[in-house]
Design goal:
By secondary structure, the protein is mainly α. Helices cover about 90% and strands about 0% of the residues. Helix 1 (about 5-25) runs antiparallel to helix 2 and helix 2 runs antiparallel to helix 3. The radius of gyration is 14 Å and the shape is flat. The model has no long low-confidence stretch (mean pLDDT about 90).
Length: about 80
């Protein structure tokens, strides 16, 4: 088994694990963090496919924008 295959399986397990934890988490802030980690894993898959630009867009748009917006709205609703 090559290093690329091992990295793919590790990232896939990470994405699936954090995706399931996102869905079944009862605490909304933890669910947002699990979503963040799952999206970082997707960016890692893009890097394995040598699609650096798409991985950078994944991190900037989804991780940097949408998840931060979700966390910000959670903080506003809690107060």
């Amino acid at each position: 088994m090559s290093g690329t295959a091992i990295a793919f399986y590790v990232l896939s397990a990470m994405i699936l694990t954090f995706g399931v934890m996102t869905v079944f988490s009862r605490m909304i802030f933890r669910a947002a963090i699990y979503l963040l980690l799952s999206l970082i894993g997707v960016a890692g898959i893009y890097l394995l496919m040598e699609m650096e630009f798409v991985a950078a867009l994944q991190i900037i748009v989804y991780v940097g924008g949408i998840v931060v917006l979700i966390i910000f709205s959670i903080f506003l609703l809690v107060a």
